[in-house]
Each structure stands twice: as structure tokens, then as C-alpha cells.
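Summary for the steering committee. One of the milestones for this cycle was to obtain a three-dimensional model of the protein with zinc ion bound, which we needed before selecting residues for the alanine scan. The sequence and ligand used are listed below.
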Amino acid sequence: MSPKLHPVRGIDGEATINLFVASLEDIRNPKHCPACLTGCLLAFFHNTNGAYLLDNIAILRENHHLFLDRCVAFLTLERDLAELDAASEEWIGCECDLNDALIRKLHDILPKGDEPDINTVSRHVVSVVHAVLQPVREKGGVHKVAHNAEKAAKQGKNVLWPTKPADLLPYGPDSSVRAMGYWIERAPSALWIGLVGSMLEICKRTMIPALITSPYIPEKSIGIVEVPIMVHMVRTAEPRRKSAATPAACLADVKRCAVFFLQLQTFCDRHELLKFFSGQEDFFFRAMKTALDFVRDIARDVKPSTARLDVIGIGETEQEVSYIESVFVTLAATVHCHLGLPFDSKKYTALVLAHSLAVLKTDKDPAIIAFQAFYQLAFHERCCSPGCTETFASLGRKFSLCSGCSRVPFCSKQCLTTAWKYPNVAHKDVCKKIKAVALATKLPSKPAPKDVLQFRDRCRAEIDEADIADIAMHVQRLFKEMSSAFDEEDKIQFLENVSRCETLGIEDVA
Ligand SMILES: [Zn+2]
Ligand SMILES: [Zn+2]
Ligand SMILES: [Zn+2]
């Protein structure tokens, strides 16, 4: 029997969820008023202190897919600004059946006086979906999602939500991303940006074209970085002023933005990244500078006792700060370097300039090309046997990695055998070297672009330069050889994907 939601305020969680699902059968015309729907979301999500109920979130993921699908549909159904404006004015009156005890209780959850509207509902829906996705992204994004379904089926358990990346974009990437852009334009918040970041991590490149052309998301995602920092500064300057935003909450908000920017940098190529920031460069560098200048101030005020109140997991404050700094420095340096901007220490933080200089110097360094190769091998989701064109998508599963090096995927044993002695690009020539380099550099199995400099430095200290160059050249030959099996159009696409690591500041390998 599946576990029941823990009741809060004496309200039955399952009945509340059924009511919410039924109410949003037609997303555009909910059957209940905003107060009632907000009550539904609060009923099982927060305890009376306002803290998230982590157990209930886990139960939602396992047992209430329809509810979560409705939540996502609510957020991704395309409604433009005019429609959202109209909805927030029209959809306020209550015609709910207050003779029903449950409905009456739900109406009483929100304090009187502050009449909720469609934005209130959306804010709470974002909060629920964000919290549900948090464990997914912490455990490795889309692979985990695909893996979850398999594992659960084997154990006869319920599949955890989302069951597949497309669950997050029910109306397709273009329409869904546009819809979220309208919400964000209307009521920007770090929570929204964090949600888009988590979705991006799971859906990967699916969302990128829509994101970079979104009329609202680029500007709002940059602008929102400074908001929690300002909130904290006001709070520090006027300690008597009442504010709900604790230092922990402010830091969590900055981190939500960092999560988004890290995903953006990971999945965009150079052109996409520049397009995303195009026209907002000054605004962007100012936001990065503000964040880097003040994030440690906020961290100093975080009290350990409040740390776990927020589901994003502030946990080790020092770790969180390093994470935020590393994301912002790497991103700002990459954009700075790609744009060929001057080394102006008044305008840019010293850390960013140092990093940008390093990115510049790394052009054509074999260690960088080798890193690019590792990065590509980790994410390109293809069989690496020359002549084979199978992908994770075409066979509907992940491939095993070569057991020798644990880095190179093959769709079958036979493909590994073919690749092992393939003329000119025999895997046996590099298998041991790949393993040795990965071990010596402590390279994660899914490297992030920010790992590149550490990788390069460890290569210099630990590895014979000739071996590095050998791996770099080998993988370039391999990708060329692999692409020759495709027809012309696919070949171009493949080589484009291979050169997608340009975010690292490297030229095409093709
Ligand atoms: Zn009502
Ligand atoms: Zn194959
Ligand atoms: Zn191998």
C-alpha cells in the first residue's frame, strides 16, 4: 500500500490533492478560487511553521503524478501577458461550496486580508514543483530520471515523477518555455529561475533554442541575481524592519540563480551563450560583480540552526558559497573571454579577469582538447565504434562504458570488439592512457566546464605531455571517423555537437 501524506492542520492530504486535480481539469478555467487552490498547496506542503515537509514531497513524487502533471501544465500552458493580466483580475471571486468541510478548511489556511490571485497560486505551484525536482537534480538529472523508471519497474514500485524529461514540457519546448517566460516577466523570482534551471538540467538541450530566444527569461534571470543581495543589504542596514527573508533564504535564492546559470553554461555552445546575454552584457557583468562582492557577507549571517529550513539545502554554507562563486566566476570569465572584452579591473572582478586570462591562454593546449574530448564522451550519448550510428535515443537506453577506461560508451560488445582494433583509431591504443589520465586528474565521470582548469593543471603536474596530446589527437580522429558513417546532414549535425564545447573557449575539433 502506498504511504499516505502526513496530515497538517487536520486536513486530509489525499482528499486535498483530488480536489486540486479535479479543479484544474480545464487549466484555463479552474473550478475553485485562488484562495482555495492556494490552501490546497499549503495544506500538505508546509507545516504550521512554514517549513517544507520533506516526507510529503517524497510521497508526492512517488504517488501523485497526476497532481504534479497538473501543476506543470498550469505553469507551462501558454498564456500571454494580456491573458495573465485578465486572469488575475477576473479570477478572484469565490464561488466554492463552503458547506463542504474540507473546502471551508482550505479557505481558512491563508490569513484573511491578503486576497490571493492567480500569481499567488502560481508562486505556490512553482514552489511545489521546484521542491519535487530538487532531489532529481541533486542525483544527476536526466539519467537518473530514465534510470528511475527502470529500477522502479524491476522492484515493482511506483516510478518516481518526472518519469521522463518530456513530462516537464507538456506543450513542447517552445510553447512551454514561452509560457514560463510570461509568468517570469509578470512575477520574477529566484524560485522561478531555479525551477527553470532544474528543468534545464533534466531536459538538457531540448530547452536551449527556446530559452535563448525568450523575450523575457534572459533579462529577468540576470536581474533577479541582485534582488536577494539587495534584500539582505536592506535587512542589515535596518535590522528592525520586518522581513521574511532570512540570510539563509537570500543565499538559497542566489544559489537558485547559480544553478540556472551553471546549466545554461553547460548546455549552450559559444554562440548560444552570447546570444542569451546579447544586449545585456553590462547588466550581466554588474550582477556578477554584485554577487561576487556580497555573497560572503550574506553567508556570514547564516545561522546554522536555520540552515535546513529551506529545501534547497544550504547545509554547509562554505560549500554553497564556493559553488556560487565558482559558477559566477566561470560564466563571467567565459562570456568576457568570448566577447574579447578589455581587462578593466574597475568593471570586472579580479577573479573573473584572472579566469578569463586563463581561458584565453588555454587555446590549443592539448590538455584542453583532451578535456573537451572527455567532456564530449561523457555527454554525447553515442556509440563510439566507428561505423556505428546508434545513440542512447535510437536504442532507448544508456550504453555501457568500456570496462578498461570507464569513459567511452559502446552500444554492444561487438562494437567494442570492432573499435578495439579499428585501423588508425584502435581503442586499445588509448584505453590505458585514458584511464590513467582520468584517475590522475580525478576527473568526475560527468565533468563540468569549470573543471577544465584544474584538469589542465593536474595534467601538467602528473602526466606526460605526449600522452595527453595522444589522447587529444586520437579522440579528434575518432570523431571524424565516426561522422563518416552518417549522411551529409547528420554529419554536419554531429560535428556541430562535437564542437559544442566551445563554451570552454576552444576552437572546433572538426
Ligand atoms: Zn473559494
Ligand atoms: Zn555500436
Ligand atoms: Zn577503454
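Key point for the committee: The first strand starts at residue 400 and ends at 401.
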